[in-house]
Amino acid sequence: MNAGAGPEAPVLEVRGVSKQFGAVTALDDVSFAVMPGEILALLGDNGAGKTTLIKGLSGLYRFDRGEVLIDGKSVHFSSPLEARAAGIETVYQTLAVFDNLSPTANFFIGREEALPRWLGAFGVLRRRHMLATTQAQLASLEVHVPSLTAPLGVMSGGQRQAIACARSVTFAGKLLILDEPTASLGVRESANVLRLVRRLPAVGVSVILISHNIDEVMLVADRALVLRQGRTVGQVDVSADNRGRIVSLIVSGQDAGP
Amino acid sequence: MVRPRKNHEEATMNSRVTTAGPLGTRLRESSAALRVVLRVVNAGPPLILVILVIVFGLIEPIFVTQRNIQSVAIQSSLIGAVSLGMFLVILTGGIDLSVGSVIALSTVLGAVAFTDLGWSPVAVVAVILATGVVIGALNGAIYVKGRIPHSFISTLAMMGIAHGVALIISDGLPSPGMPDIVQTLGGGYIGPFPVPALVVLVLAGIIWFATSRLVWGQWVYAVGGNAEAAREVGIPVDRVLISVYVACGACAAVAGLIMAGRTNSGFPMAGNLAEMDAIAGVIIGGVSFLGGRGTAVNAVIGAVIVGVIRNGLNIVGVNTFLQYVAVGCIIIMAVEIDVLRSNIESRLRAAEGRRA
What residues of A are in contact with residue B356 (Cβ under 8 Å)? Predict the structure, then answer.
């Protein structure tokens, strides 16, 4: 982690956000911060408010109350594009990948590099440039795919997940939100994706990892934030000693204490 | 000793497909084999065309004379132009049933502009092309902005409307006379090459370039592959869809231009059933009806295959009506090849998963 002058400032700070859906309170006064190079696990049972929280952070919902700060500056996202422009990328379980396109095309989809710029959508794709960038980025993240030009449809679930993550990492200036990235993967492919997640702090990207799998969290996360019925019930450093405490927070909302 | 060998082969195949776990080399071998099959499948349409030409040529040498090849090219050019537009629409998972009516209305309006209004040849060409663009824009706008469940419905409506307007304007009668430039585009020759075929080649080049080299083309494939994800990544899906219907209308109008030139007239029955031939051509060209897969070149080749079957069966001298049966069979075959392709892809995916 970089040791700048003065105390380290969080990449993302969430202050007292709330969200109401009719009579249901999905989020109630939730506050937390993500530090540079930190992997924060977001835990909680179904209906705890995890999804509402990340949808708010990625610009799909608006919070009713509270404040979100990026690098100390207050932000208000009214669309996913604005969140992305601010450096927050989200990988949902649906992945938003295209089976009919190559990994390279998937990498740059929606933000293709083309010339001349003023032609916009009618610009000519810089295919070699994009291929080289994809190649370099996948190599630096140690993601291996059988081909950069074959359609993604022939690749495994883990490879597709890895490409979706790598794409988001490339464009996430600051923060990557992963929604259960290993939910549909086998054991070995999960391990590959988690290895990729662990490498992200080294490239300067903080992570919010949503997971149901406590072992996975123990393996990669620095800190865990536990939600229950829309409220924060605990923030715990992840260590082997704290495992029981985290489980107890998720299951009963009770902090068993250190 | 044929039987035992076959059994042996089957056994090897089975073991390749089902083996999982430590036998990595075997797996790699099998995905390599699957990849080869996939290549062949993807090269399908040109292969089918070559085989058809060779077979017809062997049965009846007249088939491969310059004169007949020219006539196949002319016959295919009309459907070729329509198929290129239909290709774009099918690529997004849609369909455009109004293309035949665009041909009819564009030739009728062209005739009105030329004969009744006495407009210049260039203006007549512009009227014909503009007809396609306007109807395409309406198709797209009604489909997207009207939140119609599938473009089948909106273009079915437009098929009736445009055809009806063509009949009303022309009173159901053909109107002879087209400017020289239109006649040349529809029926002229440059050396041995029929001009309409060259027009379609140029159009094919444009569509190929637009779909494979422009950002727009990437977006068209993305919308066809996964519309929801396309929205998520910030592609202006609605505008892409509208642009595709505009392009399809324009391509149909080019076919209208060819039709008007070839027949030297505008008539409201022009382009009758062109939509069906174009859909057949696109599907035979290996473009997936579900969207997102296929190439402009193969779409044109599909249209040429339809033309070759029609012409070839005529020349070979079998019952003319057999061509409908033949085209139908080829369509089923093409769709089955598409099914085979997705089957191979999912097997490759599984193989990759085991290897990871």
Answer: 156, 158-159, 186, 188-189, 192
Local structure of residue A10 (DSSP, 8 states): P
ipTM of the complex: 0.82
CATH superfamily, domain A12-97+157-252, is P-loop containing nucleotide triphosphate hydrolases (3.40.50.300)
d(C-alpha A176, C-alpha A179), whole Å: 10
Residue among A155, A118, A122 nearest A138 (CA): A155
pLDDT averaged over chain B?
A: 89
Task: Test A110 with B235 for CB contact under 8 angstroms.
Answer: yes
Q: What is the mean pLDDT of residues B199-205?
A: 98
Q: What is the pLDDT of residue A144?
A: 84
Residue B352 near residue A154 (C-beta atoms within 8 A): yes
Q: What are the extents of the domains in chain A?
A: 12-97+157-252
Contact list, A126 vs chain B (CB under 8 Å): none
Residue showing tokens 């990948």: A97
Instruction: Indicate the residue of B215, B342, B345 with minimum beta-carbon distance to A123.
Output: B215
Q: Please list every residue in chain B whose beta carbon sits closer than 8 Å to the beta carbon of residue A84.
A: 234
Q: Rounded to a whole number, what is the distance in angstroms from the first to the last CA of chain B?
A: 41
Q: How many domains is chain B built from?
A: 1
Contact B215 A99 (CB under 8 A): no
In a domain, B11, yes or no: no
Nearest chain A residue to B215 by CA: give it: A121
Inter-chain touch B352–A98, beta carbons under 8 Å: no
Residue A66 φ/ψ, nearest 5 degrees: 100, 180
**Interface touch B353/A111, C-beta < 8 Å:** no
C-alpha A86: how far from chain center: 14
Kind plus residue range of the DSSP H or E element containing A177: strand A175-179
Give B26-59 pLDDT, tens digit per residue. Answer: 555 577 788 888 777 777 889 889 999 999 999 9
Q: What proportion of chain A, given as a percentage, has pLDDT over 90?
A: 40
Q: How many residues does chain B have?
A: 356
Domain interval for residue B92: 76-295
Which pLDDT tens digit goes with each residue over B294-311? Answer: 999 999 999 999 999 989
What DSSP character marks residue A49?
S
Question: Strand locations in B62-210, DSSP E?
Answer: 175-176, 189-190, 193-194
The answer to whether residue B138 is domain-embedded is: yes
Q: Indicate whether B350 belongs to any domain.
A: no
The number of C-beta contacts closer than 8 angstroms across A and B is 102
Categorize the per-residue pLDDT at A7 as very low, low, confident or very high, splitting at 50, 70 and 90: low
Q: Do A189 and B215 touch (CB under 8 A)?
A: no
Confidence of residue A142 (pLDDT cuts 50, 70, 90): confident
- Position B29 scores a pLDDT of 54
A153 touches chain B (CB under 8 A): yes
Q: A142 contacts in B (CB within 8 Å)?
A: none
The answer to whether residue B210 sits within a structural domain is yes
